[in-house]
């Protein structure tokens, strides 16, 4: 798999996921053409799955990316409840 920081061109329902606008998301493109959204909070916080069930509609770990998904690394923030 190849990991990138881009959320452009995501298929439905990934395109509807809260993860798309979250700085903790990393897009992963598989060799078979599949696309996955990886949560970088996983591994640091047991509340998060590396590949959360999509689309995520609410998440306590959400952190606005500021327009460039997969960029920032600071903790804290959040938006509503998860799942
Ligand atoms: S913290 Fe929540 S919104 Fe952000 S990538 Fe992980 S599951 Fe998605």
TrEMBL record:
Biased composition (Gly residues): 67-83
Disordered, as annotated region: 62-83
Domain of life: Bacteria
Protein name: Uncharacterized protein
Organism name: Engelhardtia mirabilis
């Amino acid at each position: 798999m190849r990991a990138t920081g881009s959320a452009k061109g995501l298929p439905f329902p990934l395109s509807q996921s809260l993860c798309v606008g979250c700085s903790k998301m990393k897009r992963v493109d598989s060799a078979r053409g599949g696309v996955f959204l990886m949560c970088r909070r996983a591994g640091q916080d047991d509340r998060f799955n590396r590949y959360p069930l999509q689309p995520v509609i609410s998440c306590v770990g959400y952190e606005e990316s500021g327009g460039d998904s997969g960029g920032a690394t600071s903790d804290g923030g959040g938006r509503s409840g998860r799942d």
